[in-house]
Amino acid sequence: MVTCTLDNGTVISIINPLTPNAFTAPELASQATIAAYLIVVSLTIIIWDILHNLQDEYKLLFKEKIRLPTIVYFMSRIGSLAYATVNIVFLSVPVDNCAQLELVGLVLYVITTSTTALLFYLHVCAVYNNHYFVRIIFALTWLGVVRGSITIIEGVTGTHLGPTQFCLNIIAHEYIVASAIAGLVNDTTMFAAITYKFGKANSASQAKNGPSTGITRFFSGDALPAFSKAMLQNSQVYYL
């Protein structure tokens, strides 16, 4: 058993100093463990999704003309995979420089968040046939996502966990909440716009069945053409 002084000045006795989480408060150790599990689950889902859609993505990359949406899509996919991988390393592997590794992860976070939100922006623009007003309004909300995600780089850093080589996140500034707020506002407004557009068309198609039926099926898209219904449902999945 050894004694150790925490960052807040508290002196504690450590039964097993070889355990990295022994150098943090119990609640922080629990949060770090849960975060590591969630990242592993996320990476597993990403890898499964890539393998599941590998054939379609191969065709998209090598059989179709490369356009902006294709580039953004693959940047989002690669960014998500790299971000999850870096986070697993950060939370579970001893490293020499936690701050640099955290910076790499945060840059990947900005890339992933921005490109994924850009895909949704391209989606809503397509739904409204690139209407000028729609493009301007949602370009501003997308830029808010980009700026909000950049606050993460400025507001979070990494440090070693006690005397070990394992890493721990340190929140330096509370304004990083802007990232979550900007993302929520952007996704909610875009989803509402897409739902309104398709819901209005769906209600019109259901008018012969009476207003109540149209309202009931406003979000289902049952009366829409297959492609439009797929776009509506894809937006619902993204938002959830």
Automatic annotation (TrEMBL):
<keyword id="KW-1133">Transmembrane helix</keyword>
<keyword id="KW-0472">Membrane</keyword>
<feature type="domain" description="DUF6533">
    <location>
        <begin position="37"/>
        <end position="81"/>
    </location>
</feature>
<keyword id="KW-0812">Transmembrane</keyword>
<dbReference type="Pfam" id="PF20151">
    <property type="entry name" value="DUF6533"/>
</dbReference>
<feature type="transmembrane region" description="Helical">
    <location>
        <begin position="103"/>
        <end position="124"/>
    </location>
</feature>
<feature type="transmembrane region" description="Helical">
    <location>
        <begin position="136"/>
        <end position="156"/>
    </location>
</feature>
<dbReference type="InterPro" id="IPR045340">
    <property type="entry name" value="DUF6533"/>
</dbReference>
<feature type="transmembrane region" description="Helical">
    <location>
        <begin position="71"/>
        <end position="91"/>
    </location>
</feature>
<feature type="transmembrane region" description="Helical">
    <location>
        <begin position="28"/>
        <end position="51"/>
    </location>
</feature>
<protein>
    <recommendedName>
        <fullName>DUF6533 domain-containing protein</fullName>
    </recommendedName>
</protein>
